[in-house]
């Protein structure tokens, strides 16, 4: 057995290298960690063990929680109709299209095709948020609409993952009931914990949230579901609290990106086989095209219905064609549970990585909206919440979430 400290030093060293590369190239650190994991797995013979798998699982859960918590409730309410319609179409069209392609063209089994559809149905909140901040669109109506639609899109993916692969038995009933009760009470309990014991060196509020995430993750795995499902819902349930307690969000983000998520993304890249990648290049290109075309067909018309100018419509559609975190989570779920093999996993993850790069590059190069093209806010508006420290969130996300 390898020395635990040597193994930890190697993995953290790779994570540090990925951080430096992401800063120098201006790419998402998650994307670079996957790429570094691919190289390390195919050249250094890097492997996982029980404790690395545990840290990687913790990273996926906390990252999913933070993704749900990043959505400003005010922005979601202001753009409710548009975000629900565009986000649902952004999930459903590529899910059905990619499932049909992998089942009837690539010849995968139905469970394998469902994993393919889920992996390609996602959009990348991390990539989109970074682009919004970089361009300043996060302060505009179009930026808030895109972010809200991305949230709805990914929520559809997470819910579908749970529905398709859960065991429908008593364990699932217990999981659903306990999760529902927890989500109903979580806001009040979290406020009490923060008011009574918050801002202490021992970080009781952070430990409380981790307790909730890990407890619901345990129930989810017993029900043969995925721990990221309740994590996303927990993030949404306390998103409004985080708008008033940004330091708590930033401490959790530091914990996630410094200690936990590198294990997950490095591990995700570790399973990508370069020989399989070369032999599957045609399938990879086809999967990327299927995702982009189905996103165009699903999202494009609805953006026009909600009053976006054509240039802005194309920009929105392209950004919603990106994928990264939930795409790799879905593919890794399929691999870990023996639903897809390593060759299929390689094809899916490579297509997902390409979708984080290609649509973003096209959108930023040719379709970046001009200020006068920013659409008016939809009619379904609500008064903004006080204390939303947008600039702090934007600055932090740019530095750490690429």
From TrEMBL:
Bias kind Basic and acidic residues: ranges: 393-402
Listed InterPro entries: Cation/H_exchanger_TM (IPR006153), Na+/solute_symporter_sf (IPR038770)
Domain (Cation/H+ exchanger transmembrane): residue spans on this chain: 14-362
Keyword terms, alphabetized: Antiport, Ion transport, Membrane, Sodium, Sodium transport, Transmembrane, Transmembrane helix, Transport
Segments traversing the membrane: 50-68, 80-101, 113-133, 145-166, 172-194, 206-223, 269-293, 313-335, 347-368
One term under GO cellular component: membrane
Localization, UniProt: Membrane
Alphabetized GO MF terms: antiporter activity
N-terminal signal peptide: none
GO terms under biological process: proton transmembrane transport; sodium ion transport
Region (Disordered): 373-402
Pfam families xrefs: Na_H_Exchanger (PF00999)
Membrane topology value: Multi-pass membrane protein
PANTHER family referenced in this protein's UniProt entry, alphabetically: NAPA-TYPE SODIUM/HYDROGEN ANTIPORTER, SODIUM ION_PROTON EXCHANGER (EUROFUNG)
Protein name according to UniProt: Kef-type K+ transport systems, membrane components
The organism of origin for this protein: Thermomicrobium roseum (strain ATCC 27502 / DSM 5159 / P-2)
Gene expressing this chain: kefB
């Amino acid at each position: 057995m390898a020395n635990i400290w040597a193994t930890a030093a190697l993995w953290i060293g790779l994570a540090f290298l990925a951080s430096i590369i992401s800063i120098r190239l201006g790419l998402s650190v998650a994307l670079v960690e996957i790429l570094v994991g691919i190289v390390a797995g195919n050249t250094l013979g890097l492997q996982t063990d029980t404790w690395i798998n545990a840290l990687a699982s913790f990273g996926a859960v906390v990252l999913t929680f933070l993704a749900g918590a990043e959505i400003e409730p005010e922005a979601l309410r202001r753009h409710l109709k548009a975000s629900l319609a565009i986000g649902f179409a952004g999930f459903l069209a590529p899910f059905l299209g990619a499932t049909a392609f992998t089942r009837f063209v690539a010849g995968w089994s139905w469970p394998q095709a469902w994993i393919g559809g889920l992996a390609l149905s996602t959009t990348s909140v991390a990539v989109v948020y970074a682009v919004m901040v970089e361009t300043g669109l996060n302060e505009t109506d179009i930026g808030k609409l895109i972010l809200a639609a991305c949230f709805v899109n990914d929520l559809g993916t997470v819910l579908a993952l749970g529905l398709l692969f859960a065991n429908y038995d008593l364990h699932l009933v217990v999981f659903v009931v306990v999760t529902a009760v927890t989500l109903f009470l979580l806001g009040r309990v979290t406020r009490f914990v923060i008011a009574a014991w918050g801002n202490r060196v021992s970080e009781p509020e952070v430990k409380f949230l981790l307790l909730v995430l890990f407890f619901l993750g345990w129930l989810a795995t017993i029900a043969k579901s995925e721990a990221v499902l309740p994590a996303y819902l927990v993030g949404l349930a306390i998103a409004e609290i985080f708008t008033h307690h940004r330091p708590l969000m930033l401490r959790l983000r530091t914990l996630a990106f410094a200690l936990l998520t590198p294990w997950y993304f490095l591990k995700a890249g570790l399973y990508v086989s370069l020989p399989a990648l070369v032999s599957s290049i045609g399938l990879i290109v086809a999967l990327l095209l299927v995702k982009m075309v189905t996103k165009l067909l699903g999202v494009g018309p609805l953006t026009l219905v909600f009053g976006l100018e054509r240039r802005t419509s194309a920009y929105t559609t392209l950004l919603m064609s990106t994928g990264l975190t939930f795409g790799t989570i879905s593919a890794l779920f399929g691999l870990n549970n023996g639903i897809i093999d390593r060759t299929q996993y390689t094809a899916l993850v490579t297509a997902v990585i390409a979708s984080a790069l290609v649509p973003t590059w096209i959108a930023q190069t040719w379709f970046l909206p001009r200020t006068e093209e920013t659409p008016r806010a939809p009619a379904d508006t609500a008064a903004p919440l006080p204390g939303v420290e947008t600039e702090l969130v934007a600055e932090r996300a740019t530095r750490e979430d690429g």
